[in-house]
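Renewal narrative, Specific Aim 1. Our central claim is that a sequence can be written position by position from structural information alone. The example that follows is taken directly from our test logs and has not been curated for this report. It begins with the structure tokens describing the chain, in the order in which they were read.
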């Protein structure tokens, strides 16, 4: 999920932002097996521990990935990003997970 431009010798490194990617983090004969779907304003430094940093690289369903990214945005105070990310989760999934629906309603 983290994204950011690679730093060159004469440019300071830009802070990496949390993003949502679909696919696998590999290239096969110059073909990317992944695609960026959403980029947020939340920096990687907002994550509080190493378990959260490791969660960024775990394969999970698109609904779980959106819920987790929305939670990180919500916790960082980026309500606009949280609402945008969480609104892509279908209503039946939100009915099964009432805590995510409550977070979405509070952020909106």
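The sequence written for that structure reads:
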């Amino acid at each position: 999920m983290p994204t950011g431009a690679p730093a060159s010798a004469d440019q300071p490194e830009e802070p990496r932002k949390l993003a949502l990617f679909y696919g696998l983090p590999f290239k096969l004969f110059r073909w990317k097996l992944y695609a960026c779907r959403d980029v947020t304003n939340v920096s990687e430094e907002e994550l509080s521990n190493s378990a959260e940093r490791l969660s960024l690289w775990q394969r999970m369903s698109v609904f779980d990935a959106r819920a987790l990214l929305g939670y990180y945005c919500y916790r960082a105070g980026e309500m606009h990003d949280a609402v945008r990310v969480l609104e892509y989760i279908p209503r039946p999934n939100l009915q099964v997970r009432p805590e995510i629906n409550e977070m979405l309603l509070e952020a909106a």
